[in-house]
Amino acid sequence: MKIGILQAGYVTESLAKTYGQYPEMFQRLLAGNGFEFETFVVVADEFPRNVNTCDGWLITGSGDGAYEPHAYIPKLEALIRAIYAAEIPLVGICFGHQIMAQALGGKVTQFEAGWNIGQIRYESSSGNVRCLAMHQDQVVIAPANSEVIASSEFCANAGRNGFKALSYQFHPEFSPEYTRDSIAAKSGSSLSEDQAEKAISTIGESNDSDQIARQLAEFFISANQARQNSEEAI
């Protein structure tokens, strides 16, 4: 199965030297499932020829807001709707979660309460999970025909499942080390030193990213098999 990674943003150069860019993080997260990967840097206007170029699609995080007037965002929204209409499995993480919601009729805003950052506990359909988060924007209105499958006191729409689409606001692809270093790099600029210190203190050496990785892999495999079965039945 070939997964197309739609790269919507960049890891800063200093951190990328150690941790890689977002596509590399997702390839590590989903390793061992027999997937092939191809990256399309949509933030640089690099888009696939059509939705059938890959068997499944994954949208990464980004420093951009889904509601901001960047040239690639309307094209990405159109691609999301085309993937969805074709019933090809689609996953979104953080910005990916937000842009999917926006493209399919939901609403995204910069949340008035500010940053949600560090290791966060979420209530999910499979029990409580501890995952790494780093965002100011949130889905405030979920699209119709989708089920909320993860939430926290700070973020009501932290995960959604609906019709060959699965998305999460948090970052299963982030390691604790990368998250600490990324927060530290924001300290004194987009984050106050106190905010950064508090967020870093929440991050343990383990979390439930492996559980989410298994869920994402199982989703891709089962949704793709269901699509193939449907096509063979026609």
Automatic annotation (TrEMBL):
One cellular component term from this protein's GO annotations in UniProt: cytosol
Record has Transferase as a keyword: yes
PROSITE patterns: GATASE_TYPE_1
GO MF annotation: an example: transferase activity
Pfam name, any one: GATase
Domain Glutamine amidotransferase: 22-183
Presence of the UniProt keyword Plastid in the record: no
InterPro entries associated with the record: ChyE-like (IPR044992), Class_I_gatase-like (IPR029062), GATASE (IPR017926)
Alphabetized UniProt keyword annotations: Glutamine amidotransferase, Transferase
Taxonomic superkingdom: Bacteria
Protein name: Glutamine amidotransferase
Organism: Blastopirellula marina
